[in-house]
Amino acid sequence: MKRAVSQNQLLAWAAGLLVLASLPSLATAASRLDGHGDAQRLPHGFADWVQFGAALTASLLLAAMVTTRTVGHEGATRRRLLTQRTAVAACTLSWLYTTTPASSPLARHLGTAVYGVVLAWLAIEVCRASGARLSSGFDIADRDQRLRTWGITSWFYLLCVAGSFLVTMSEQLLRTAGFDNALIVGLDQRSTLGLVGPAEGVLAFIATVAIEDVVIVAATATLLAKARRPTWHIYTAICLVEVAVHAYMGISALAFAVLTASRIWLYRRYQGFLPLAVAHLVFNISVLLKWFAPGLPTMVIALMLATAAILGVAPRRAGKTGATA
């Protein structure tokens, strides 16, 4: 018989996941900001060591949880769970290789993507062990609910577009008002992530989607709700972490609080982390097109917006029941 998980344990897991999700990004932003100054205060390789420590911690925790869950199973189920153990080992070996000094920039971004996937997997295992299972949102058989889920995905995509517009407009407003010092000049998402090509961009955004949508928003909101925390606690904790992760943008990062609060509301209202992740990834792909194929985005984004607007009416036609497992 499984022992009930206490509220303190749920809060500890939520806090731990938030630390593992945000620490590497904060270290990378701090290192790049430190590099813009006259004197470097952070030690060489600071961000790499933080990333290594976070990845090692996440991998060990994931290995322990998967091993504990798979003990005692027999037959086909045991073989399937043994495959999961092998996958954990493969993920660990891959990021260990990609963090070596001899690895290429592309390999390092691969390691970041693997870390994001491992952390998302860990979040799912934590929620499962805590009795607060995460629903993908697509594990349903009813056609109307599937249509509804795609409609919710389109809402998330439109929300990403609106959030990007809000951040851009806030930056322009600050510049117009003469508050350039409130912005960190020379630091943006592309330079902070160190992207030199579309392949690195895809890998970096896979990590971004896995960490921000699955871990920071979905898993944290689920664990805090399971711990019976007040709604404002849930919103405040997640929004603060999202603002901190995007702090390299200066004061305009506060706009992410509005975007994150909207994402939390939609997730808590409809459940399912995959609509959130799919929409975010599609939006990030349009951002990559803007960076590396400037002639394409206008038409592509217009098509995406039109498709999202059409799909967005689906939830109203399919009733008010959320697309949960």
Automatic annotation (TrEMBL):
* UniProt keywords, alphabetically: Membrane, Signal, Transmembrane, Transmembrane helix
Question: Which residue ranges does UniProt annotate as crossing the membrane?
Answer: 49-68, 80-97, 109-127, 147-167, 202-225, 232-258, 296-314
Membrane among the record's keywords? Answer: yes
Annotated signal sequence is 1-29
What is this protein's record name?
Answer: Integral membrane protein
In which organism is this protein found?
Answer: Streptomyces caniscabiei
